[in-house]
Design goal:
Elements (H helix, E strand, L loop, with lengths): L1 H4 L4 E4 L1 H10 L4 E8 L4 E9 L18 E4 L5 H13 L10 E4 L3 H9 L5 E5 L2 H7 L7 E11 L2 E4 L5 H13 L14 E5 L7 H7 L1
Helix pairs in contact: 3-7
Length: about 210
């Protein structure tokens, strides 16, 4: 809202928020996409409790019927939108196929919910398990059972209040950015740079939102 209304010139937006904000105001544009751990996009995956019985290595949608499913929140690309779009693509209604749905609120809490038997399956992104282990969660109690899609990471966006000359300079600085490590030799966010992301990179996610 701040970006679209011109109260701030720039903002970092999740993929879903970028699509929705750009749709409501075409003056909102991409400046650069974030790179995390050397990647420009995130793979959305399904995680399950280790003891969950599923027949296939890559889970079939019908195997999830009647299970308890954890989402992150409704604005999460990998933890809500892509899992639901995948289910719909498999011919299932995400609002009725599960015995229970839980909003975990964030990716780490979702993995914690799986490990503690709050839910059976959940949607998140590939690198979440690595981050969960770094945060002290017992990732040995969960496993990856399938993929639901792929999406660019968050993007730095310009709004109607942005000055075009400043935006171009900001873009050049971001694309040239090389992060240094912190005192422990690691980046907390694992931000490894920025890249020149195009609007077309979000087309698959637009279909999921539709």
């Amino acid at each position: 809202d701040l970006l679209s209304s011109g109260r701030v010139p720039y903002a970092s937006l999740t993929p879903a928020l970028y699509i929705k904000t750009h749709a409501s105001n075409s003056d909102v544009s991409l400046v650069a996409g974030k790179e995390h751990s050397g990647t420009q996009a995130a793979d959305a995956v399904l995680l399950a409790r280790l003891d969950l019985e599923v027949e296939s290595a890559v889970v079939q949608a019908k195997e999830l019927e009647g299970k308890r499913f954890c989402y992150v929140d409704e604005l999460s690309t990998t933890g809500y939108l892509l899992p639901r779009a995948w289910l719909i693509g498999q011919g299932l209604d995400p609002d009725t196929v599960f015995s229970k749905t839980i909003r975990s609120g964030n990716h780490m809490e979702l993995i914690r919910n799986l490990a503690s038997d709050v839910c059976d399956v959940g949607g998140t992104f590939e690198e979440a398990l690595d981050r969960a282990e770094d945060n002290g969660l017992d990732v040995g109690l969960v496993r990856r059972i399938g993929a639901t899609g792929r999406t660019p990471h968050d993007a730095i966006c310009a709004g109607p209040a942005a000055n075009p000359v400043e935006t171009q300079k900001l873009k050049e600085l971001l694309l040239a950015f090389e992060p240094g490590g912190d005192e422990d030799g690691e980046s907390v966010e694992k931000l490894t740079g920025f890249w020149e992301v195009a609007d077309s990179e979000f087309d698959n996610l637009r279909k999921a939102l539709d």
